[in-house]
Every structure is written in C-alpha cells, then in structure tokens.
UniProtKB/TrEMBL annotation:
It comes from the Bacteria. The chain crosses the membrane at residues 38-62, 148-172, 184-202. Keywords: Cell membrane, Membrane, Transmembrane, Transmembrane helix. It is a multi-pass membrane protein. It comes from Salinivibrio costicola subsp. alcaliphilus. This is Amino acid transporter. The lineage of its organism: Bacteria, Pseudomonadati, Pseudomonadota, Gammaproteobacteria, Vibrionales.
Length: 208
C-alpha cells in the first residue's frame, strides 16, 4: 500500500473515539454535574491527550512504548488506579451529599479539570493501542512527514468534534435537569463503570 487510506483511518478513529469509555464518560459526568465550561475544559484535556498519542503513533513512539513492557505496565497501573479513584469519588458524591444540587464548581478550577481529562487519556492503554493500530493499518511505511501531519490534523479535528460535542450535548439544561433528578443513579453508574474499567485494565483486559 503506497497511499494513505483516509476513509479507513477516519472510520476507525471515529469508532475508537466516540465509543463509550473512560474519557467520554468523564466528559459526560463533568458536563452534567459542573456545567458546560467545565465539560469543555475536561474535553480539552482529553483532546490534548488524544493529540499526544496521535503524534506518538504517527512517528512510532506509541508502538515503541507498547513494546517496552515495563513502561506500558507503569502507564496501565497508573490508569487503573486513577479510574478506581474516580469510582470512589463518584460514590462519595452520592453518600456524602445530603441535598442534591447542581454544582457551581467553585471548588474545582478549570486547570484541575483540564489536567484530569489529560491524565485520564494519557494513562488509558486503550488510547495507546488504538492509535498505534490506527496508523499501522492506514498509513504506509513510505508516508512523508507532511502526510503524517495531515493525518494528525484530520484525526485531531474528528476528535475535537466528538469530545467537545459530548461536552455541549451533556451540559444542556435538559441533560443537567435529568442528572439532578436522578443524580444517585447517574453517580452510581459512573462509579460502577469507572470501577469496572479500572479493574479490567488492572487485570490486563484492555477495555474496548
């Protein structure tokens, strides 16, 4: 294969990016509980992590990382531990709040929530492997640097539309009102998913 298979890359990227996972669920959680600004802030953090892995995969660094078992294992354990922490945090928000209200996020800064999104994506083994496979199946070995930059930009625009779109979607008034009425159910769901994802990663089963 001498030409870059753009349709294959974009379809595969959309499937990997838009599918439910730690990043998309964290964006939904932040958007519904803290509002649009904070949802967008977390989405920007996830997007930055996505760009890091996209660039790394394009230039072979992601494949190199995944081939060095000890480095990959450190990333895996950090990611699992953080997801379990998010699970416990969601449970605490259920049992530690006497009155259900929509948070105005006074105690959470934009920089904190940005780095939360960044850390979630940088320590997600699925993201590393997804981008590594993405470039290996759609980009020929003969691709020039300009070709790789084009792919990075296209995947980046696709990622932006998905992650930022999720933040806008889940931060609208109806979504936030629904969250408030069923906050316990939502937070329990978030806790269950983050805990499940953390345990799956911890045991070596990379979630899809």
């Amino acid at each position: 294969m001498d030409a870059i298979n753009y349709p294959l890359i974009l379809v595969a990227a959309l499937a990997a990016i838009a599918s439910p996972g730690p990043a998309t669920l964290a964006i939904a959680s932040a958007s519904m509980s803290h509002g649009r600004i904070y949802g967008l802030g977390l989405a920007c953090g996830v997007l930055t992590g996505s760009l890091v892995w996209s660039c790394s995969a394009a230039f072979g660094l992601a494949a190199l990382l995944s081939s060095n078992v000890w480095v990959f294992e450190v990333v895996r354990y950090c990611g699992a531990a953080y997801l379990i922490y998010l699970s416990l945090k969601s449970l605490r928000s259920v049992f530690g709040t006497s009155k259900l209200t929509l948070s105005q996020s006074h105690s959470t800064t934009l920089s904190n929530i940005y780095f939360k999104g960044l850390f979630i994506h940088l320590t997600n083994p699925k993201a590393i492997l997804s981008f590594a496979s993405l470039y290996s199946i759609g980009v020929p070995a003969t691709a020039q640097v300009s070709d790789l930059v084009t792919v990075i930009l296209l995947v980046g625009m696709l990622s932006s539309s998905v992650f930022l779109g999720y933040a806008v979607l889940f931060s609208n008034h109806r979504a936030r009102s629904t969250y408030l009425k069923s906050k316990v159910m939502f937070e329990c769901t978030f806790a269950a998913f983050f805990g499940f994802a953390g345990m799956k990663i911890l045991t070596g089963d990379i979630i899809k």
